[in-house]
Amino acid sequence: MNAKLITFSGIVTAFLGAGIGIVIANLLPSPYTSSMYKDLTQKYAIIGGVAGLLIGSSQEMVRELKQERDLEEDLLRDLNKAIRSTTNKDNY
Q1: Which is nearest to 56 in space by CA: 90, 7, 92, 4?
Q2: pLDDT tens, residue by residue, 29-53
Q3: 24 Cβ contact partners less than 8 Å away, ≥ 6 residues apart
Q4: Among residues 52, 63, 71, 62, which one has the least CA distance to residue 13?
Q5: How far apart are CA 8 and CA 36, in angstroms?
Q6: Which of 50, 71, 72, 75 has a CA between 20 and 30 Å from the CA of residue 65?
Q7: Alpha-carbon span 33 to 38, nearest angstrom
Q8: pTM summary value
C-alpha cells in the first residue's frame, strides 16, 4: 500500500472535516451560556477533523486494497488460463 497517498488523503479530508465542523458551529449557534458550550467552534472543528482523517484514510486504504485484490485476481485468472491451455494441448 502507498502510505504517502493514504496520509495525504487523510490530511485533506481532515481539513475538509474541520471546515465542515466550523461551518456547522457557525450555522447552529448554541443558545446556552454555560462554560461547557463555549468554544464550540473549536470543538466542532476538532471533531470534524478527526472524523475526516479517519474517513479519508479508511477510504483510501480500502481503495488500495481493492486495487491489490484486483491485480491478484487478474494474475490468478491468467495463471488458470495458462494451465488450462497447456493441459488442453497435452490431451490432444
Answers
A1: 7
A2: 888 888 888 888 899 999 999 999 9
A3: 44, 48
A4: 52
A5: 33
A6: 50
A7: 7
A8: 0.77
